[in-house]
Design brief:
Radius of gyration: 44 Å
Distance between the termini: 99 Å
Largest sheet: 6 strands, antiparallel
Oligomer: single chain
Number of domains: 3
Strand content: 35-45%
Length: 536
């Protein structure tokens, strides 16, 4: 991902900046049921977050501090904003340093000409000092940083650059994936017909290097281009995790924002006099450039990384919000247990449940053909096609971790309970025509396939039937053979055979029928039937 710097195997260590008297000491939060927020506080550089027991990751949203506006000049740049999910271990500690806006870190005291980096917003890297007595460029905003207990950097939101003075359009650059460049002082009106000359802005820090300071320049007054007085000019580059100080001179550039790599300072226009075409002497000060923003960062193991610009508004301090995430635990059924049994050809459904934040995603291996697991709900469903005992591994995972449970599932062969019934005449006489109705029913639970029914009669002459029938033996009964195909559970089929009574008075007529299918029958005793009647 562009703008995200990754760490080497040795990991990068950072010494959290200590801005005495400017960043408050805050104890660890005491409740973690929901998000925990940290703000900029005066007094100590580091606050701590105790990762709740059982948590496997945290979602962090961090904002860097705003750069300060210059006195009568350009505005400060916004801090960067980083959102990322960081892997953690329950019970561990994260160090939180929240960057302030440059005004909160010193306000007008940043105009005192000191080289105190506390004039920039504090944080993992304080913003740059304006370094000037009056008028002064604004200090850079402080970076906000998260580190682990070893001091390794996990996340940084860069601070905004300070505005240049007295150029009203020499704004500081915003913090971001790579800090934005400040705005130059060129062609910014000062007073009357005086314009700033070539004072250049500071460059923002990038994901690989600090920003460079802007070069000084002069300004044009009544056609007399004036030059800077410094020799050599002072240019303040950014550095790792610390914003650069503004360039020294009578008019100061903005300080660079703090960040994973700090922004460079704005250039200064310090001018000497010259004589214009009318012979008038002139001297004055040109507009300085704004400071560059600090670069933001998320470690290589972070996921869901989003880096942009803070929308907290001008003059805002940084902030941090941390939300714990918990890996899944499969709660039911218990691992190493048997799932409810299934039957070939029958619709099946059972649910594997899991806790965790965020909700788990499910997967499974070893499922019998015809079954699958829903990745969102954990429902195992479908229609199995093969009998057997299966060992199934179900996994539940989220960004905080994963777990696996093992189950057995027995799929029974399909069963179809076929039965047969015969109805015939209540009386018979020689030479009469009689009919027998044979009904085959399937009580299920599965469909019966390759169903065959055989019907034999006694005491009758030639027999007729609707439809086609061959000859064969079913359930020991040899006679007409009907191929029924498939018979769904709960359905039935009826055959009618008709013949003429040939048996004499005192004899008997009758019919016998049997049925079978290719599916196992749990009650084969009702697969055959016989009826008879005396001839009068």
């Amino acid at each position: 991902m562009s703008g995200i710097r990754t760490r080497s195997a040795g990991r990068v260590a950072i010494a959290l900046a200590t801005c005495a008297g400017l960043i408050g000491a805050v104890g660890a939060p005491t409740a973690f049921a929901d998000a925990t927020s940290f703000g900029y506080q005066a007094g100590a550089p580091t606050q701590t977050y105790s990762v709740p027991s059982g948590a496997g990751a945290v979602v962090v949203t961090a904002d860097g501090g705003y750069g300060a506006a210059a006195a009568g000049g350009g505005g400060g740049g916004a801090g960067g904003e980083v959102t990322a999910t960081l892997p953690v271990t329950g019970g561990s500690t994260l160090n939180v340093v929240v960057g302030g806006d440059a005004g909160a870190a010193g306000g007008d005291s940043c105009d005192n000409g000191s080289d105190d980096t506390s004039c920039g917003g504090p944080g993992a890297g304080p913003g740059g000092d304006s370094q000037q007595t009056s008028p002064s460029g604004g200090g850079g905003g402080g970076a906000t940083a998260i580190t682990d207990s070893s001091g390794d950097i996990l996340l940084v939101a860069g601070g905004g650059g300070g505005g240049g003075s007295p150029s009203p359009c020499a704004d500081g650059g915003a913090g971001g994936a790579a800090g934005a460049n400040g705005t130059g002082g060129a062609n910014c009106p000062l007073v009357g017909n005086a314009y700033a000359g070539g004072a250049n802005p500071g460059n923002g820090g990038s994901d690989t290097a600090p920003g460079t300071g802007g070069s000084p320049g002069g300004y044009d007054l009544d056609g007399c281009m004036m030059s800077y007085s410094e020799s050599p000019p002072s240019v303040y580059d950014g550095n790792s995790a610390t914003g650069a100080a503004g360039a020294a001179g009578s008019v100061s550039g903005g300080g660079g924002g703090g960040g994973y790599n700090g922004g460079g300072s704005g250039g200064t226009a310090v001018l000497v006099g010259c004589t214009d075409a009318s012979g008038d002497g002139a001297s004055g000060q040109g507009g300085a450039g704004g400071g560059g923003g600090g670069a933001s960062f998320a470690e290589s193991t972070a996921t869901g990384v989003s880096i942009g610009t803070s929308s907290r508004g001008f003059g805002a301090n940084g902030q941090v919000t941390i939300t714990p995430l918990y890996p899944p635990t499969i709660t039911a059924p218990a691992s190493d247990s048997a799932l409810p049994g299934a039957t070939v050809g029958q619709t099946y459904s059972t649910t594997v449940a899991a806790s965790g934040t965020p909700a788990a995603t499910f997967s499974a291996t070893g499922l019998p053909a015809g079954l699958s697991i829903d990745s969102s709900s954990g429902v195992i469903s479908g229609t199995p096609t093969s009998a057997g005992t299966y060992t199934i591994q179900v996994s539940a995972s989220n960004v905080a971790g994963a777990t696996t449970a093992s189950y057995t599932l027995t799929v029974a062969a399909a069963k179809a309970d076929l039965s047969i019934a015969i109805s015939g005449p209540s009386s018979a006489t020689t030479g009469a025509t009689v009919s027998y109705k044979v009904t085959v029913a399937n009580a299920g639970p599965a469909a019966a396939t390759s169903v065959q029914t055989g019907i034999a009669t006694t005491g009758l002459g030639s027999v007729t039937t609707a439809g086609s029938a061959g000859e064969g033996t079913v359930a020991g009964i040899t006679g007409l053979l009907f191929d029924d195909g498939s018979l769904a559970a709960g359905s039935s089929v009826t055959y009618t055979v008709t013949g003429t009574v040939t048996t004499k008075h005192g004899g008997k007529i009758g019919a016998a029928a049997g049925t079978r299918s290719s599916v196992s029958d749990p009650n084969p005793l009702n697969n055959a039937a016989f009826v008879s009647e005396s001839v009068s």
